[in-house]
Amino acid sequence: MDAPFRRLRLAASLSAIALCGCGLFDHHTRCGGTSEAEPEKPTKVETRGQMPVAPTAPLVLPQTNPLPTPSLTATVSTAPSAAVIPAGLGQPQVQTQVKVVATVAGELIVTDDEVIMMMKERAGDFVNLAGEEREKKEKQVYREELRKLIERELILHDFIVKIRKNKPAALDEVWEQARQSADRQIREFRRLAKLENEETFTQYMRFRGTDAVMFKRFFERTACMSIFLNSLLKESGRGVALVQIEDYYRSFPKEFQIAERIRWQHLFVSTSRFATPADAKLYAEWLQKSVKEGRDVAALAKEYGHGDSALRSGEGIGDKPGEIRPTELEPALLAMKADQVSELIQDANGIHIVKVQERVVAGTKPLDETLQLIIRNKLTERAMKLERDRIVTDLWRKHTVVIAE
């Protein structure tokens, strides 16, 4: 998967390790589960056969055909179940063949296409390998992504059962929230990938060997899980308080250090171009006065400058201490503020004039509202990951997971 998707995935919550599979069910079960609420019954975890592994053939990207993997072939209905079709609105079921590689709690499924989509996102892990080394890595990635998808279904099965039991009327509201979140993510992806409309987006996904509908389900499923995990955090009272933010800020000061940085402009007057040093100084003083009066340094450097800064539109070399060239200019630059113009700086070759455009002094970022929000999000993601890990560990014990041979 390309850079826009990676950026969106990083920006999402830690629950985004799951791939969306909602489209196999009706609109009441897009977040997982069945059409009727059922009490949770702890059952022994069961796996039948070995975890499916990636094929021995290399994964070629992009491609339109999924990799063949050991799997079941199951018939899945894409029409709403009878339990949720209003009277008089029944319609024939459409049968679609899908490759099922795992079922969760006897109800939800993980398809081979989903695992392959996640493998493509991680193609960088194995695309440059060859032979047995590549085959081994592909199998490892396949198993890891399959496990993540199974854990997605475990979490969402638990979610759907609880919401149907405690507040069934809220299910449509949750789905609508997830759909809107997915739409926002898709719009952002299209913006980053510079895809102007839905048609170009679909064509782009097809070229990448990814189904556009499945891609959207990724974000829908992520949103469903985020809603669930956020609700659990609120119920447990584990929201992030200001005192926790302040404690994190004090405990990890290195995360908030600001490096010294300076952006500057440079004019050089060569004494070798004048009859006397005094003439060179008069010329330099005129340039300095022009800069102080607000004339464009880039234009002055190009027309009147003698050094190589004229070829860089007056831009100075180096923006950190130790990187500034010529080195003789660094003390003066580090003593100046933004928009300040230096005095004439003489060296063996001529006279320098510098102007500071932007100055960032080394120090610690202030704990303002923006930084508080960044820390709050980080602590929330950490709490969500811990909650997710706790839930998954418990659900692996409760429910049956059947993996195809």
**Helical segment tally?**
11
SS-based class:
alpha+beta
% residues in beta strands: 5-15%
Percent of residues in helices: 40-55%
Distance between the termini: 28 Å
How many structural units, i.e. domains?
A: 2
Mean pLDDT: 77
Sheet having the most strands: 4 strands, antiparallel
Number of strands: 9
What's the helix-strand series?
Answer: HEEEHHHHHHEEHHHEEEHE
Shape: elongated
Uncertain segments: 10-96
Rg (CA only): 31 Å
Summarize the structure.
A hairpin with a 3-residue loop joins strand 6 (345-346) and strand 7. The protein has 11 helices and 9 strands. It is 45% helix and 12% strand.
Note down, in words, how this protein is organized.
The protein has 405 residues and is an alpha+beta fold. The chain folds into two domains: 3-238 and 380-403, no CATH class; 260-361, Roll (Chitinase A, domain 3), CATH 3.10.50. Helices cover 45% and strands 12% of the residues. It is built from eleven helices and nine strands. Strands 1, 2, 3 and 9 form a four-stranded antiparallel beta sheet that branches. The protein is elongated and about 95 Å long.
Name the features.
single chain, 405 residues, alpha+beta, Chitinase A, domain 3, 2 domains, 4-stranded antiparallel sheet, 11 helices
